[in-house]
Design goal:
This protein is mainly α. Helix content is about 45%, strand content about 10%. Strands 1-2-5 form a three-stranded antiparallel sheet. Helix 1 packs antiparallel against helix 2 (about 20-30) and helix 11 (about 265-270) packs across helix 12. The radius of gyration is 30 Å and the shape is elongated. The two termini are about 50 Å apart. This is Holliday junction resolvase Gen1 C-terminal domain-containing protein. GO terms for molecular function: crossover junction DNA endonuclease activity.
Length: about 290
């Protein structure tokens, strides 16, 4: 992998060597050129020269059939490899055990999320004001907050897990029920569980404290486009199939107080609401 990074570009030198793409670099690495390069002493200039000559010969003639074809125009420059870049790869600077422990203490993912601060920020930065803005924030954050809270419950399994009744009460605050499972190609067949939850129960934003605003309809009779997270449904004034009544578009506004369904990685759901998962899997077994 070091040779691939040096030839085609990597973290420490994104340019790489002109003409050498990932495919050729991988072929060279499979041929063992990377291992032989790393074995050369940093002070062995003659060794690097000999290595370059052998590499260029193989690339241009494909004498040993390491490559799919010859590349007569390709040639490594005399400055290859850049020893400082090679050193970064072979001897990376990493934190010692004490430094890692200190970082672990300072960085925590379990702090309280300032939802009020987030609400103020999106109102000022994005113009998400009034109740419609609050609902937009809830809709975007609720699935993420749910996964976050499921993970936190997994980190605190010792709290209340000996009491099934208390555990069930705690779980229903996050997930009301489970309604499906899948392994979809869109997520590389990652096992997922579909859960039902109430968005604002997860986010905890006081919708009623938000100022309401009324938008007038457009001249064409359609609902305004300000609330881009609202679903629009095409309905008729009269449900009779033969009715000649004019049809119109009406807006079905997103309601964060209504249950919502979302697919979440199975491992996260099992960690956060194990009793819910057990009950669901048992219901599947009993239905057979």
């Amino acid at each position: 992998m070091i040779l691939v990074a040096l030839l085609s570009g990597g973290d420490y030198d994104t340019n790489g060597v002109t003409g050498f793409g990932v495919r050729i670099a991988c072929e060279a690495a499979r041929a063992g050129f990377g291992k032989s390069l790393c074995r050369i002493s940093r002070t062995d200039a003659a060794g690097y020269t000999k290595w370059r000559e052998r590499f260029n010969l193989e690339v241009q003639t494909n004498e040993s059939k390491h490559f799919k074809s010859r590349h007569e125009s390709l040639k490594l420059p005399k400055t290859f490899p850049k020893l400082d870049i090679l050193e970064y790869y072979t001897n990376p600077v990493i934190s010692d055990a004490h430094g890692v422990a200190k970082l672990r203490e300072e960085l925590t993912g379990e702090g309280e999320i300032d939802i009020v601060g987030l609400r103020q920020f999106v109102a000022e930065a994005f113009g998400w004001k009034y109740k419609v803005g609050a609902k937009k924030l809830i809709r975007g954050l609720a699935p993420v907050f749910l996964v976050h809270k499921l993970r936190l419950r997994g980190n605190r399994r010792e709290i209340g897990y000996n009491d099934p009744a208390l555990t069930d009460m705690n779980e229903i605050e996050l997930v009301r029920s489970i309604c499906g499972k899948r392994a979809h190609f869109a997520t590389d067949a990652l096992p997922e569980i579909r859960v039902i939850f109430h968005p604002n129960d997860i986010v905890g934003l006081d919708i009623e404290a938000e100022e309401d605003v009324t938008h007038d309809c457009r001249q064409d009779g359609l609902a305004p486009l300000l609330e881009d997270d609202a679903a629009k449904a095409y309905v008729a004034n009269n449900t009779t199939a033969r009715s000649a009544s004019p049809r119109k578009w009406v807006r079905l506004a997103y309601d964060p107080m209504q249950p919502e369904r979302v697919w979440i990685a199975q491992i996260m759901v099992k960690v956060g609401v194990p009793l819910k998962v057990e009950d669901y899997e048992e219901s599947l077994r009993n239905s057979k």
